[in-house]
Design goal:
- The protein is an all-alpha fold and 270 residues long.
- It has one domain (6-269).
- 83% of the residues lie in helices and 0% in strands.
- α4 packs across α8 (180-204), α4 packs antiparallel against α9 (210-231) and α9 (210-231) runs antiparallel to α10 (236-269).
- The longest helix is centred in the last third of the chain and has 34 residues, at 236-269.
- The termini are far apart.
Length: 270
Amino acid sequence: MYIISNSMLVVLIIDILVSLSIPVLLYLALRRRFGCHRRPFFFGAATFLLFAMVLEQLVHLVVLRSSVGVVIQQNVWLFALYGGAMAGLFEESGRLIVFSTLLKRRMDKDHDALMFGAGHGGMEVILVFTATMVMNLYYALMIRSGRAEALLASMGEQQGAMVGAIFTSLSTTAAPIYLLGLLERFAAVVLHLSFSTLVWVAVKEKDRRSLFWLAVLLHFAVDAVAVLMSRSGISLLLLEAVVIVLAAICAFIAWRVWRRRSIEAVPETA
């Protein structure tokens, strides 16, 4: 028998509303504060959709179903290294390609790097987190309405097992735990803003192309550490704390690069 508390419903609704507001508020803030163009935001969203959700997933489909993929999935270290490498290469390559082509003639305003990052990170928030919370809310309402067993009965064995596990989690997990995902999404957006800044400068200043590989390396490191920690069985709170710290480190590195560029640009403007 599954039971959904009122607090769980409230938390799921908060997750949905807050996560949806992240890209919207970032878009409005960057438009108002810095006068950023609209186009980088939507290019950023499209870049995540194409490179992370389509192209990268196609590679996973081929690799993970092969004999090599079986070995990778059986070893947590290999899986973490593989996942981090793929995420870093595909997403940062997407930024590099878009900055070098579609936005090449619109790189006069450096704050548009943040606008691109907001679109990229915002799309990830919606597709990875918001969509999941909407589905969780649907399942929670099905349980509250007494239709959970009927829903499970209509599913196949494998799908039913997966949905049953979700039902159990929604019924037994303390509601505030579901708010931790918001912290992770905030950290992820900070990471996307940081990586977009590094790749933007790499494209704009040809003598600093190494910043692209720095973005790839940082992206790889963050994802690999997150996978390793999540598979180690540590508490979610500690995992989110580590991700936040890593996001802060990446943001600091991007800020230093940005600040150095701003200082060097003063004589040129003068």
